């Protein structure tokens, strides 16, 4: 199985815009102090801007939190798109993307730190406040597989996005509650799970994949 990419919180943003500097600064502060203890003043100081700039460019502290979460999701999705471009087999594409998502979540310093410091905030961001990142994820994953269809790597499915959403809901559940009888600790565990349960959802019986 291909090694899943890891996510770095230090990935440079194109153009180094004021918004990206603010989000970079917020990420640093959240990792240091958590959401609750970080203030707009802390973020402004770290980003070398004034408070008004943050309010004008992004909004309140909660808006900054949401923007950071969305950007980190987008970074993972970009990595998944790059991974998909390197795989020329439908089954391996499903396995590789599933492994990449779990690896990104488990190795992401920000996510793991916040799970330790403020788990209630992370759970909230993934559930009641998680509509935007979830919708973004479904749309991006569907687009990635549509690209694989165009390349002839993935079979054409009229209900692709419904199938993608089912997969995303399964992965979402695994992230929210990793405990259970299903073992997903090793690469072998992850690959076996994807082959037995996820591939049949995305590639139904009778549909030929490459």
SSE blueprint and pairings:
Elements: H1 18-37, H2 40-47, H3 51-57, H4 61-85, H5 90-107, H6 109-117, H7 119-126, H8 131-150, H9 160-176, H10 187-202
Helix pairs in contact: 1-2, 1-4, 1-6, 4-5, 4-8, 5-10, 6-7, 8-9
Key words describing this protein structure:
disordered N terminus; Arc Repressor Mutant, subunit A; 210 residues; mainly alpha; 70% helix; single chain
Number of structural domains: 2
Helix and strand element order: HHHHHHHHHH
Biggest sheet record: none
Strand residues, percent: under 5%
Q: What is the general shape?
A: elongated
Terminal residue distance: 17 Å
Helix content: over 70%
Oligomer: single chain
User: Helix tally?
Assistant: 10
**Number of strand elements:** 0
**Strand-pairing-aware structural class:** mainly alpha
Q: What's the Cα radius of gyration?
A: 18 Å
Provide mean pLDDT, rounded. 85
Low-confidence parts lasting 5 or more residues at pLDDT below 50?
A: 1-15
Task: Characterize the structure shown.
The protein is mostly helical. The chain folds into two domains: 10-59, Arc Repressor Mutant, subunit A (Orthogonal Bundle), CATH 1.10.10.60; 61-202. It is elongated. 70% of the residues lie in helices and 0% in strands. Residues 1-15 have low confidence and may be disordered.
Write a compact overview of the structure shown.
The protein is mainly alpha-helical and 210 residues long.
